[in-house]
């Protein structure tokens, strides 16, 4: 039986928008939706589980069923997905993705909580879950059949009785490392179906051909071009797949890396953080628009299945306008309400050593003087970016793959050195998965290490306590606030012309990151975040807001 499926991640779309997206997905011609399950979203701290809001996985299963869709679930524990740390919690000690008990014990604890929730929605029990994945593209990472068998047996033991599968690139290396006897093997690719399925068949001649990830688009990194794919080319590749087997579009529905959830890649030593948008050039866009790919795919799918009607929907957007952000509050002037608790330490500490997952950390120490000529302060192992202040004045910005030191003149009485360090997303693919954040290897003034640090973890998980109205003249990163007035909630696209780098919150919800390196220019503002009347917009600008501190609402996305 041919499977026609499309990927949509429940954690990248607000729950109130699920019915719209799922209905459009069904109208495209597929009968199944596929989703990953990010471990770090559901278990943010060891033993503390969350299945609410964006983490309402079971609510998504029910919404898919109401839209007439079956569900394929990919529970990891590793998912990649251009998601922070590939879905692995930052608190995991390592080693990763092998049968070492230091990894398997927390995996088993999580699966004890997660898998029965999935099992309860299986088609064999009256639900709509029809397939469950074992790990994810494991052949791209390692060779540990004991680990894979532990996961597969654990899924069955916890109640999974629908078909299991693995998915890997269609190469000898990946298929010999990532597959399991008795478990369906599927392949991931973007074109060349005949060649790819032939490679899969050499290893698994009895398995039905299935492209579990048809890469019909791609994701973006900061500072690189925006990826698109010609709809006609993608539709032709789809037809070649369907002539031979089953398909799952990756992605079918675009989404958003809200908050700090965007991951990163590493090309050799080059760090590549992923942008906030996960539009992916999908047939159904990040904002739910039906793109030319939607219609091209629907035409192809209509030759292989009956097509439901396309639901009537009006894509309302907010009118273009400017919003003045007239209030300012320096980050360093409100550490008393933002810090998770000052840590005093001889040496610098990583985020993980501070018990922090994401956000910022403020490191402070004194440089003794006098020191004669100006010497350079070097941050060793910076992950990922630091705003440097000396005696309260901005001295420079350091980056993981950019400048690692800054010149500092030290007066006779010495100087106070402050580093505001930002984590930009943990690598989600390859050998750097599980990397640490913050200052990894210390700070030097010339050849001399600096010790005696005060460190404030600033997770930025809640900005509601910011002391607006407090006198605040400090330099460096600062919050800015304004009010967006809305007659009726609708989607918007928020642009920050003249701003450099930072974060945006709307009514307390962390919309994501922005950076003038591009390619992304506008942040998607979903209508469920808004209310009639006044809406609060807060921007944390890391490098310096424009003199005209305004943001703009635009009628269309610019990715």
What keywords describe this structure?
559 residues; alpha+beta; eight-stranded parallel beta barrel; 10 helices; globular
Instruction: Using the alpha-carbon principal axes, give the shape.
Output: globular
> What's the average pLDDT?
97
Distance between the termini: 38 Å
Number of strands: 33
> Which ranges are low-confidence, i.e. pLDDT below 50, for 5 or more consecutive residues?
none
Please identify the structural class as seen in this structure.
Answer: alpha+beta
Describe the largest sheet.
8 strands, parallel, barrel
* Count of alpha and pi helical runs: 10
How are the strands of the largest sheet arranged?
1-2-3-4-5-6-7-8
- Name the helicity range: 10-25%
Radius of gyration: 25 Å
- Give the amount of beta strand, in percent: 25-35%
Explain this structure.
It is a single chain. The chain is of the alpha+beta class and 559 residues long. 18% of the residues lie in helices and 29% in strands. The protein has an eight-stranded parallel barrel, surrounded by five helices. A six-stranded antiparallel sheet has the order 15-26-16-22-19-20, with no helix packed on it. It has a five-stranded antiparallel sheet with strand order 14-27-32-29-30, with no helix packed on it. Helix 6 links the parallel strand 5 and strand 6 (184-189). Helix 8 runs parallel beside helix 9 (292-301). The radius of gyration is 25 Å and the shape is globular. The model has no long low-confidence stretch (mean pLDDT 97).
